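G., before I forget:
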Amino acid sequence: MRFLYDVRHALRTILRSPAYAIAVVLTLALGIGVNTTIFSVMDAVLLRPVPVTDPDRVVKMSPGGAFYSTFVALRQDSKGLFSAMSSYADGGANVFTVDSTHPASIAFVEEHYFEVVGVLPMRGRQFEPSDHANGAAPVTLVTDTFWRLHLQADPSVLGKTLKTGEAEATIVGILPRGFRGLALSSQADLFMPITAATLVTPRTNYLADGEVRGSSPTALNIVGKLRDGVDIAAAEAAFRQTYARHVPNGRTISLEPITTAALQVNSRRDARRFISLLATVAGLVFLVACTSLAGLMIARNERRTRETAVRAALGASAGQLIWGFGVETALLMTFGLGVSVLVSTWLLEILGGFVLPGRVNVESLEIALSTRAVLFASFVATMAALLSAIVPAIRMSKVDVIARLKSHQAWVAERTRIRSVLVGVQVAIALVLVIGAGLFVRSLHNALSTDVGFRADRLAFATVSFTEARYDEAKQARFYESIIDRLSRAPGVERVTFGNLPLAVFAASTPVVRMGAERKQLSGNINIYYCGPGYFRALGVQVLKGRDFDNRDTPQSQPVIVVSAALARTLWPGEDAIDKDLSFLPMAHNARVVGVVAHLKYSNLRESERHAMYVPWQQNRIGSSGTIVIRTASRPPPILALIRAEISQVDRALPVSRLSTVEESIGNLVMTERLGASLLSWFSALAFAVAVIGVYGLVSYAVTRRTQEIGVRIALGANPATLIRHMILSSAGPTVAGIFAGLGGGFALSLLARPFLFDVESNDPMTFVVITMLVLGSTLLASYIPARRAARIDPLTALRTE
Amino acid sequence: MITVSNLEKSVKSGAGETFLLRRINLTIKPGEFVSIMGPSGAGKSTLLHILGMHDTDWRGAYELHGQPIHALKQKDRLALQKKHIGFVFQSYHLLDNLTVYENLEVPLSYRDVPRAQRQSIVSDVLDRFQIVAKKDLYPSQLSGGQQQLVGVARAVVASPAIILADEPTGNLHSDQAREIMELFRKLNNDGTTIVQVTHSETNAQFGNRIIKLRDGWIVND
């Protein structure tokens, strides 16, 4: 009953100050919401990336890549280590639903895969041994995501068939929400027996033998579940020996816990570092929220000084006073926690549009606020309350009753000190975050203004899949001819061509041999781009020498090739590359160089100049898919629907697996910079506002507190400018200290952010100087406004106040 | 009831020490109505706050009902304060966001009095002080005299044996002041020991003993 009485009183007290309550709840919600969101991302990427049973016992062989026969032999000889062992490969195919085509990621899994991961379908059945037999009718388990997004969450899909690649697969089960395989960078939509791969994508046979190549599509990933009592280090040592026995000249392998292996080896460090950066930023936001809360609480307590003193004089013990504050704070905290769920949901939705380093698509993680996240939020809320409310309450409960009843100067001085410290911390954090934001914004600007070697604006493209539509080369040629003809006549279209598209549709690579008197084979493979007529003109690539491809380049004419300037320099240093001959796979004949083009960015914006060659598709008719490239007169989006419609007019059955713009593709390449710039800009703006308000409040408070003194100074002849300078300088200590601390913090943050910056040094002097001046200028302005008020005080009124 | 021996209170001032109270020896018997008088800065309020246990920073001996306050821990002092002492302030110090009824309820809630009992006690006090009609009003809706009436009611609601009043009529007109002093006399007649600080000779005459302080010393008792 006593508790209810206290709650009722606390509620009434809160309701009597709605502005204060709203400010506290929103500040709490923001601090908790941001941290819960980042914790959820951290949980989903680093702590519990894959929802398997007994994750500590599930291990993956690293590096991956073994033939099926090797896997079978390894399993046979490792029975003492693993209770179950399996293999899988990440593949893909177009999936045809009633109304559209979707490019789907498919995990082709060996028979014991689900035994290893310990995941059961939430509907339908598991794969049966007969499903894995060679020649068995294809079956599939669909992920919850695919079921909801593309099958309308229809429970009756079980037993129905789904056209997957070139096969009709029967849906036998729906997997539980959250399980999409064992790699965060390639989240599966469908699971199928590995034996079905040849039916879905006939060129793929994971069961065939051959030479092991690291990233070859024929290589399998091996996973196993350690037996009870088997230590991972011991298992690794034993398994390494077994592997060496079966693959004598193979690489040194290791067994990685599945939680580690879920991130790609080469981007694991970057992913962790970026999440650490996010966590640091979230921590700083939390600190800003706490200091802001503490400021609010102090201001509130200040107004309640007399009330607290009276309560103490009436017999309230320190415990009772703290309890009273505690109940009030707990209520506000509960409201803040409730609103923070909304903030988290909103932030997760925003983060869903981004891709983390390591190709971790946040949206595909389907992060939901879990019990762990809510527990974490509660912990954060408690910390926030302890730091911001209870500590000031304890301090207040200990202060001399008489002093408070008389508004003793010592008590006022203590409040001023605390406020000064808070403002100093706020300025420091604001500076750190604004520096971080400045670095990322500059990075994003640099990335987006990078010269990619062609005009990326107003360039749309559509990728069609010829394999499923069973197009032969002649039919592909007719399709290109027809679609170019139709789209060229469409309104708003400037040029149409087809071919691989740098930064959007990635190219194959092949070994190259310089022909002529001195044959020379280049080490490594060279990217090869298949192009339609007018390819370079449509893309806006500068042809340095020679010509673009055109209708002269036919299967019957002299095979021709265009090379990048870098390749020309390497193969024919100091010579003109035009009319020189090259040989490359799969061409049977030499190709003659007819053009040299400027350097393009091919796979990412950070790459330096590299070798590339371009060949006319008419003379090299290969490809299971094709990309139509359209240069438009205006921004592309309105044209996308038209492109789809025109393709459909040519052949309704031809699946369009991708329809987008090059600008969007480039946008995907700068996700890290964009995410950093977006988050840091928002958070720094917030921290900046809190700091400026804090400085304003500090000076304003000083003016109010020193009204009488200012009155005396004016009465003694102080002029306004002197007074303003005096007020600004006497409150400048926290700002200056905050700026020095913030510069140090900003430098530390920039070191953490360094791998993600684009053409910006982490200690970029321009960013540091400009932002420091900005923060200093803003805080000076925030000081000036209340200081000016001091200069306008009427000395008579001020002296009468006391 | 109250025995104070060699009580001293000082504050640091620069390198030295300024004494606010010097060698105070004092005994107050149950049922007395004592008025402490003296010029500003004589130490009247300081002495009252020490007797009320709001101030803990002093030297000497202080016994209340035979309990050596000087030797007790703060927690035990607080328990004795809650049990025996009620306080009336010059500026009333009612809690602005609580009604008259709730202001009277506050001291009882700090003494863990059950709700039903609190209701009964507060109703009784409201009746005794004839402020039933004001019970749902907030302090800002009352006159100064009415606020101090509530202040006195709040001081007696927990039935303390002693009421300490720090210039209780300092902010009131003479008519209102007389009413409050009559009220103190009535409470004193009913057995409550009263110690008030006052500048007013008239108000001091309501009591039966006057102690005069000057510069921290008792100069007349």
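The two ends of chain A are 45 Å apart (CA to CA). Chain A is about 50% helix and 15% strand.

More on Monday.
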